[in-house]
Amino acid sequence: MRKRSLIPILYILFLLLPIYWLVAMSFKTTQEILGGFSLFPQTFTFENYRVIFTDPTWYWGYINSIIYVSLNTVISVCVALPAAYAFSRYRFLGDKQLFFWLLTNRMAPAAVFALPFFQLYSSVGLFDTHLAVALAHCLFNIPLAVWILEGFMGGVPKELDETAYVDGYSFPRFFTTIFLPTIKAGVGVAAFFCFMFSWVELLLAKTLTAVQAKPIAATMTKTASSAGYELGLLAAAGTLTIIPGAIVIYFVRNYIAKGFALGRV
Amino acid sequence: MKTENQRAWFFVLPVLLLVAFNALVPIMTVVNYSVQETFGNNVFFWQGLDWFENILRSDRFHAALGRQFLFTFLILIIEVPLGIIVALSMPKKGFWVPVCLVTMALPMLIPWNVVGSMWNIFTLPNIGLLGYFMNDVLGVNYDMTQQPISAWITIVVMDVWHWTSLVVLLSYAGLVSIPDAYYQAAKIDGASPWKVFRYIQLPKMKTVLTIAVLLRFMDSFNIYTEPFVLTGGGPGNSTTLLSIDLVKIALGQFDLGPAAAMSLIYFAITLLVSWLFYTLMTKDDAQ
Transmembrane ranges (chain B) (predicted)? Predict the structure, then answer.
């Protein structure tokens, strides 16, 4: 038993090492970073964080990212819920083909869509808005949400629906008061995945924004190239991007394994 | 059994409209570009299938495609077995389970460009932890910006760091769904650990492993941001994967026609290989 737990421990250590290094760098001064190797920060400083929290171009990057990610999560889950219900309960013309077509959108390389997306959203006047990024991320998040929710809904016996109708429930009332609470774990997991993939995506978010809705990730790449080697600042900005993910993951910790299996175990 | 109901289409309609807006319009734009030539000013000339021919014959495309397949192959062959091993040795219940799961999921929630920057900082010779360890402690000459082999090792290790947890979490979900009675029966029969794995655990993990392999294939084949931030495709062209090359052509040189043709070929390859994987891995179920 002892020997077996060594593998996860080593694996977790391997995962934490680069993260530790990022956090350690964020508390160092630029001189110390470039001056040579040190395992712990010698002159512990909050200067990098102070810059981020006082400079609007920095902290607005975080706010922008959170706005479009939340917007995308809400849109994706709301439209995916009825669709997933339809796929899990009914047969209709072209259902299998439609489901497969939805999934193929997960396979499209974002690089393929970057330029056409720019033109599309410019032509409908949404360029550089939070809504543009939120809608663009629907491309890969809606299929995923439908897939996850369909998995969870498939696990709910059909008798539940039928009993409710016999008891005189209308469909909207049944869906909101009985069905949704039954699959709330699935909704949580779907929302988590939408949040995650929207939060980590950069290429489309960067292509569709300029100033007003610029994501934090774009602010970081600009700083990395323009200010030369501001490694400490870059590390602090990177450390802060880990926090929202860590908070969200804490909420779904009990469903995470099942969630990653898309409800299909 | 599902009931037939055509009105279900109304439930699917919002999804259909949103995804179609995002998928069909851009893909038609790409198709449009792929058969035309432009010299700017929105003047286009019919080009037919020339771009497709050029791309399919070009050494540059073959090289990038080869590098892409090598990368994806290495990723799958390392991440899938490693993920299964870690999942098998994880505790099944107790305080440590949520701790393990949350820490393991953490790398997947870091924005992809931050992953690139993080590994850049981590591997800098002399001042990064790994770079310092390799060069100054082990005495190995390791510099990602100079040696193609170092760059390759770095992007592969980075991806293993980033995504192995996906395989772990999926396999783990499959493992915890196995009832205890199965293990007890195996114990009574005196089955060896290998037999338990082969005949109880592996079949139970099959569905989730299919999902894992498919997701890992699609995402590693489409990878762009992390290697771009880390190596920029270099040194030379040694880590220029397909996406990186595509963006270089489309946005760097603004050759819209060839870039569009390459996009379509790229997408077609991804679809084809995903479909092959899917049919091969689910073949036994059908029989």
Answer: 9-31, 69-88, 95-112, 118-138, 150-173, 260-281
Substitution target in B22, B101, B104 with the highest count of A β-carbons within 10 Å is B22
* A218, closest residue in chain B (CA to CA): B113
| A140/A146 Cα distance (integer angstroms) | 10
Please report whether residue B198 resides in a domain: yes
Mean pLDDT of B76-88: 93
| pLDDT, position B69 | 93
Q: Please report, for the domain that includes residue B187, its CATH number.
A: 1.10.3720.10
Å between B232 CA and nearest CA of chain A: 13
DSSP sequence for B202-232: HHHHHHHHHHHHHHHHHHHHT--HHHHHHTT
Q: In terms of pTM, does the model score above 0.90?
A: no
In the predicted structure, residue A3 carries a pLDDT above the cut 70: no
Could you tell me how many CB contacts below 8 A there are between chain A and chain B? 269
pLDDT in tens, A4-41: 788 888 999 999 999 998 898 888 887 777 777 777 87
Distance from C-alpha of A120 to C-alpha of A108, rounded to nearest angstrom: 17
CATH 1.10.3720.10 assigned to domain A58-228+240-260? The reply is yes
For A28, other C-beta atoms within 10 Å of its C-beta total 24
Whole-complex ipTM: 0.84
Per residue in A170-226, pLDDT tens?
Answer: 888 999 898 998 888 889 888 988 998 899 888 888 888 888 888 887 777 766 555
